[in-house]
Specification:
Elements (H helix, E strand, L loop, with lengths): L10 H5 L3 H9 L9 H13 L8 H15 L1 E2 L2 E2 L14 H6 L6 H8 L6 H21 L10
Antiparallel strand pairs: 1-2
Helix pairs in contact: 2-3
């Protein structure tokens, strides 16, 4: 049911809608359309009340992402080659490329990014790092966790 958008709609307004209309109103906003008519009326009214936006379709979303991607390849009016389709020579996968990195510690990355290396942040970063390292040792199944090791 289409009315002027200037009109404030009440719960009674949505009660007059068909189940099909309610489901369409709810579906285009990205919400589940299951339930009886009372549930759909309440959900539609709630979505209207909070001014829930209409979600783009999968095709619209894909077109928007493709357009955004292409616009990022344009710098100062010049289109750069697309590294995913036009530049095949010289590109290597992540697993091969990671092996070529120099040995880098978590601490070095934090310093490079400009995080403070003293105080509470440092303690938290190192604690997080140690927790992650301990978990990776644990999940690897290696025998680093013997009591006599400590």
């Amino acid at each position: 049911m289409a009315d002027s958008d200037d009109d404030v709609k009440s719960l009674d307004y949505f009660k007059k809608w068909t189940v099909k209309s309610l489901r369409e109103f709810i579906r285009v906003r990205g919400y589940s359309t299951t339930g009886n008519k009372e549930t759909l009326v309440a959900l539609a009214f709630g979505l209207y009340s909070v001014n829930a936006p209409i979600q783009p379709t999968a095709i619209e979303s894909a077109e928007s992402k493709a357009s955004d991607y292409l616009s990022r390849l344009t710098v100062d009016g010049t289109k750069l080659p697309d590294p995913l389709t036009e530049l095949r020579d010289g590109w290597i996968g992540e697993s091969v490329g990671m092996k070529k990195w120099p040995p880098t510690m978590y601490w070095d990355v934090c310093n490079f990014l400009g995080y403070a290396t003293t105080g509470d942040l440092t303690k938290r970063l190192m604690s997080d790092y140690k927790d992650g390292k301990a978990y990776s040792y644990y999940t690897s199944g290696e025998q680093y966790w013997r009591m006599d090791f400590w």
